[in-house]
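In this supplementary section we document a worked example of the pipeline. Step one takes a protein sequence of length 265 as its only input; no multiple sequence alignment statistics are reported here. Step two produces a three-dimensional model, which step three serialises into C-alpha cells for compact storage. The input and output of this example are shown verbatim.
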Amino acid sequence: MLGAIAGDIIGSPYEHEPIKTTDFPLFRPTSRFTDDTVLTVAVAEALLRQRDYTRLLEDYYYRYPGVPYGARFHDWASSHDHLPYQSWGNGSAMRVSPVAYAHSDVDAVLEEAKRSAEVTHDHPEGVRGAQATALAIFLARQEVDKPDIRAEIQCRFGYDLTRRVEDIRPDYKCDLSCQHTVPEALICFLDSSDFEDAVRLAVSLGGDADTMACITGSVAEPFYGGIPESIRTETLSRLDERIIAVISEFHIRYGLSNKTAGSDA
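The serialised model returned by step three reads:
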C-alpha cells in the first residue's frame, strides 16, 4: 500500500504539469499526497474495521477537505443518498491496493475489488480497472513473474499489455478512464527494472501522473520486495499521524515486511 502512496506523492507535481521524461526530481517541495492516498487509506481502514466502504470514503472526504477530489466523487461524498454514479474513471483503481493484501486467494481478491469499486464506480470498466489492479498486486505478492502477470491480466481483462512505454509515451495524453490508465500503468511496471524506475516511467507518460504512478507503484512495491528506504522516508515525512497509524496497523494485521510498513513496528 505504501508503494501506491509513494507513487501518488511523487506524481503529484506533474498532474497539471505533464512531462515526457524520466529525468525529474523524485520529490519536490510541492510533492504532497492527493485524493489517491486519502481514499486508499480509507479502503484500508474499511478492511481493518470491517466497515462499509461508503461510510469510510465519506468519512475521509470530510476529514481531508483540502484535497482536490474529482468533481463526481465530490458530489457523491457530499450527497445524502450516496448512489453509485456509473463511473469508468480511474478512481476505483487508484484506491484498491489494500484489497490485494487482505485476501489470500484470487477469487476473494476479485470479489472484494469489485465491492470496493461499485460503491461509486459501478460501470463495468470501473470495476474491471479495480480488479485488474488488485489482481496484478496479488500476483506480484505471490512472486509470479512478469510474463505470467502480463498473460493473466490480458486473459482475464482483455487489456493489451504487449506495448512498450517508449511506444505509448509520444502520443499519450491525460486520460482519466480506467480503460486508458490501468493498462498503461501496468505496462510501466512490466517495463521497469526496480521500484523507482517503475514510478518514473509512469510519470514520464505525461498523463494523470499521480494516479498513474499510484497504480504502478502499488504493483511494483510487492514485486520488488518493498520500496527503497530513501523513498519510504520521504513519503512518510509527507503524511500525517492518522494516515501513518492506519498504514502501520494494516502492516501489522496483514504481516507485511517493514519495507512496506508505515513504521518499524
